[in-house]
Amino acid sequence: MSAPQAPVQRADFDQVMVPNYAPAAFIPVRGAGSRVWDQSGRELIDFAGGIAVNVLGHAHPALVSALTEQANKLWHVSNVFTNEPALRLAHKLVDATFAERAFFCNSGAEANEAAFKLARRVAHDRFGPEKHEIIATVNSFHGRTLFTVSVGGQPKYSDGFGPKITGISHVPYNDLEALKAQISDKTCAVVIEPIQGESGVVPADVAYLQGARELCNQHNALLIFDEVQTGVGRTGELFAYQHYGVTPDILSSAKSLGGGFPIGAMLTTEALAKHLAVGTHGTTYGGNPLACAVANAVLDVVNTPEVLAGVKAKHQKFKARLEQIGEKYGLFTQVRGVGLLIGCVLSDAWKGKAKDVFNAAEKEGLMVLQAGPDVVRFAPSLVVEDADIDEGLDRFERAAATLTQA
Ligand SMILES: *Cc1c(COP(=O)(O)O)cnc(C)c1O
């Protein structure tokens, strides 16, 4: 039996938490599938998915049982020892992708940190210290560590923390000529999100990713795909690179990989992986048995033809209805994205007001996301039931009606 717990409410956040977040006014306490209940017992439909994390919704029986089974067996041993769930998970990822080796960590930022360090290490070993430049894209997002905000390059995330990591440049997204002009024999890696998630759900063009692949080959640079948001079924393929048919040298994964349990992974080839020899990189928790047991269960469910085909079907359902709502209320001009990563681009009249849409949806009992100030983002569970999609979009339409009539 656990000890009785002191009551807490939203106001406590401002008393005891570092104020780097501004959470909503209600506190979720329980979830099942695509529904969430708050402290007062109010029920909400969840189209936010914990920012593209709760890939199988809340309290999915397969994940609950994987976690509780492992919780009764072994929680942690450190990387001084390996463990069965980590090895099983690595096998699964290697079998399902281009990769031959996996490195586990605890977040997307750490997966990218490992990817960037590996790319620099490979170039250093093969070509010497001059070849260390990383090319990223404008408005990209790769996490919040100092290296990853430097690579992301957005001043709002990277300014004011002292000197940044140097040797990084930024070129406009989806602009092959700009990349061609920037890449050189000093470039060690090009990093691209196959769909820019945080800054507006902007899918790459196939020709752009193909061209980037060719430019990297010509300049002995590695192509890194940041699939932290696009990976693990989100696009209707296990990873977005498979959707595009362009294979990276290094891929980072996190978010959906753990379905809500923290885990990240960097995937790569054997020839590259060997540059991270014993002692060159590490993490205490990375590859933790609890996280890996859950991620194994996530992959077992997600990487099936039924679930992946379902993502494509549900995309159509969302898109058709959202386009209708957007047009009827003059709220947005475009519905874009792939699979169940969908962005509604606000019309001129509503530009900058994604937060208002978020608030209006919440009042109707619906959780959505922003992707910057101009885009409303949907990243629901991949197994969200059709009835929940209909009910959630009814709520969204009521929010749109109220908002545009006010
Ligand atoms: C969320 C995200 C990250 C950062 O992941 P964290 O787990 O928050 O560190 C990195 N890259 C992309 C594309 C993301 O969407």
UniProtKB/TrEMBL annotation:
What's a single GO CC term here? cytoplasm
As stated in the Swiss-Prot or TrEMBL entry, residues carrying the post-translational modification N6-(pyridoxal phosphate)lysine are K255
Its UniProt entry gives the catalysed reaction(s) as:
N(2)-acetyl-L-ornithine + 2-oxoglutarate = N-acetyl-L-glutamate 5-semialdehyde + L-glutamate
BP GO terms, sorted: L-arginine biosynthetic process
| Cofactor(s) in the UniProt record | pyridoxal 5'-phosphate
Cofactor descriptive note: Binds 1 pyridoxal phosphate per subunit.
Give GO MF terms, alphabetically.
identical protein binding; N2-acetyl-L-ornithine:2-oxoglutarate 5-aminotransferase activity; pyridoxal phosphate binding
Q: Which residues form the signal peptide?
A: none
Major location, coarse class? cytoplasm
Q: Which UniProt keywords apply?
A: Amino-acid biosynthesis, Aminotransferase, Arginine biosynthesis, Cytoplasm, Pyridoxal phosphate, Transferase
* UniProt-annotated location(s): Cytoplasm
* Stretches assigned to coiled coil: none
- Is the keyword Transcription regulation assigned to this protein? no
Top enzyme class: transferase
Q: What is its EC number?
A: 2.6.1.11
Superkingdom of origin organism: Bacteria
Matching InterPro entries: Ac/SucOrn_transaminase_bac, AcOrn/SuccOrn_fam, Aminotrans_3, Aminotrans_3_PPA_site, Class-III_PLP-dep_AT, PyrdxlP-dep_Trfase, PyrdxlP-dep_Trfase_major, PyrdxlP-dep_Trfase_small
- What pathway or pathways are given for this protein in its record? Amino-acid biosynthesis; L-arginine biosynthesis; N(2)-acetyl-L-ornithine from L-glutamate: step 4/4
Q: Which residues bind N(2)-acetyl-L-ornithine?
A: R144, T283
Gene3D superfamilies assigned to the protein according to its UniProt record, in alphabetical order:
Aspartate Aminotransferase, domain 1, Type I PLP-dependent aspartate aminotransferase-like (Major domain)
User: Into which family does the record put it?
Assistant: Belongs to the class-III pyridoxal-phosphate-dependent aminotransferase family. ArgD subfamily.
Looking up HAMAP family in the UniProt record yields: ArgD_aminotrans_3
NCBIfam families attached to this UniProt entry: arg_catab_astC (TIGR03246), argD (TIGR00707), PRK01278.1 (NF002325), PRK05093.1 (NF003468), PRK12381.1 (NF009047)
The further comment given in this record reads:
May also have succinyldiaminopimelate aminotransferase activity, thus carrying out the corresponding step in lysine biosynthesis.
Subunit structure comment from the entry = Homodimer.
Which protein is depicted? Acetylornithine aminotransferase
From the broadest rank down, the organism's phylogenetic lineage runs:
Bacteria, Pseudomonadati, Pseudomonadota, Gammaproteobacteria, Pseudomonadales
